[in-house]
Structures are given as C-alpha cells and as structure tokens.
Amino acid sequence: MSIRSIERALSVLDCFEPDRPSQSLSEICSRLKLPKTTVFRILQALVDYGYVINTADLKFELSLKVLRLADSVRIDSDMVRLARPYLEEIAEATGETVALSWINGDDRIIVDTVECKHQLQLVLKRGERNPRYTAATGIVFLAYDPEALEAYLKTHPENAETMHSAVAEVLEKGYAATTDFRVKGSAGIAAPLFDMKDRCIYSIGVYGPASRIVSNRDAIIAHLLPGALKVSQLAGSRLVNRLPPFAALKP
Question: Residue ranges of the IclR-ED domain (predicted)?
Fold first, then answer.
C-alpha cells in the first residue's frame, strides 16, 4: 500500500464527525474531491477490516471497533506526554525555560517544565498554581473561550479595553506576550494548545528575563508556534489547522 493510499484512507475516516456520523458515498466524494470509484474502494477495504459499516439507508458509519483504538490512548497524561519532546525542542532552540500549563478550576497549573541553562532564569516548578487568567498564558486561555472572557470582563470591567486588545492580538498572531507578571523584569510568551475536542485548556509558554525574551521575541515565536501546532495536531485537534496564524504554517 502506498503512502498516498494511506493518506486517502485516513482522509475518508476524518469525514466522520460527531455532528455527521453517517455519510453517503456521494457526500464523502464531494468533500474529498475524489472519484467515486476511489472512495468506494477505500470504504470497502475499511468495511472488510471492520472499521466502517454499511447502514440500512445505504450510508457508511464508523464501527465500534474504532473505540478499541481510542481505548489504547492514555487520556490522563496524553497532552503532557505529547508535548514533552516539543518543550525540550523549544527550550533547546531558544535557550529559555519552557512550561506547559493547564486550566483547573480558577487556577492554571504548571504540569511540566524544561529549565534553561542560564544562571539568570525564571524558576518555574511543576504543580505551581497561579490565577487562571493572568499573564500571557491566561490571556491565551481567554482568547479561545468567549464565555470565560465575558465572565472575566463582568468582574473586571476596568480591564475591558486592554483585554479586548490583547485577545484580538492572540486571535490574529497566535500568541500572547507579557512582562513583569511574576517578577519585575521577567517576561513570557505563550501559545495555545488544542485537544481532541478542540478545547484550549493547555498552553506552552517561554519564560525568562525581559531583557532576553523581548530582544529574542521573533526567534522565540518562530519555534513556539510550530511546536504548538504540532502538539495540537498530535492531540487530535482539527480546529487548529483553520486558525490564524497556524493555518499558514508548514506542517
């Protein structure tokens, strides 16, 4: 089987979504822009292997066998496991401390870190908690959660103009940057991670002295955004491929 055949078979499987669990041959062909003979051959192979079934109304659906694959995924530590190599890669490329943060209630928790080798650094520890919507990471979380943003602005109306501007920048550029949050003279740049349900409840951030982070901002972003894109893709997000600026990045 060629790589092209595998790619097409995976594209067929991707057509089945929670809001469209049943698909006709014509619907799949129209979506993928492939000939009916090609799509039918792929579907028949998937039926033979038990991953797709024919329905009484001449449509196709995923079978329960697909759940066996899902059961093989360690959901509890999936994002941490997927992100770790990219945290290390970004830390090596930027020379700064990199952290993976997660939303839990009203807190954002650092669940993994890679420390830099500089003597002067911002020390971040696993398990460290901070208020949910503060600093670069907090702005990222608000940018991709309209309900949370609305709730935040109701309790912090004095920050409305500043936060709207910051959120708009995240949605356009894919990252947030702040200075002087934890320690005066420190800075951070954070990007969103999306899980298989397209939720932004994790974020990767690069942190250190403002003198280094600000002066190396473009280089940091050049490594941070592709890393965030790749982790989100590995986590099963499909939304991330349609969001600016990630849609313009090379896979």
Answer: 65-241
Asked if 90 and 224 count as a contact pair (C-beta separation under 8 A), the reply is yes
pLDDT in tens, 213-251: 999 999 999 999 999 999 999 999 988 888 888 888 855
DSSP string over 76-122: GGHHHHHHHHHHHHHHHHH-SEEEEEEEETTEEEEEEEE--S-SS--
| Residues 111, 80 contacting (CB under 8 angstroms) | yes
- Each residue of 198-232: b (16+ CB within 10 Å) or e? bbbbbbbbbbbbbebbeebeeebbebbbbbbbbbb
> For 78-135, how does the pLDDT look when each residue is reduced to its tens digit (9 = 90+)?
889 999 999 999 999 999 999 999 988 888 888 899 998 877 777 788 878 888 888 8
**Domains located in the chain, CATH noted:** 3-71 (1.10.10.10), 75-248 (3.30.450.40)
Cα first-last separation, the chain: 23
Distance separating alpha carbons of residues 143 and 157, to the nearest angstrom:
16
Q: What are phi and psi of 71, to 5 degrees?
A: -65, -15
Separation CA 239–CA 241 (nearest Å): 5
For 25, other C-beta atoms within 10 Å of its C-beta total 14
DSSP 8-state class, residue 130 = E
pTM: 0.70
Tokens 């990471």 appear where? 137
Which contiguous run of DSSP H or E holds residue 109?
strand 107-114
C-alpha separations of 142 from 17, 79, 88, 93 in Å: 26, 20, 26, 28
Q: Residue 202: enclosing H or E segment and its boundaries? A: strand 202-209
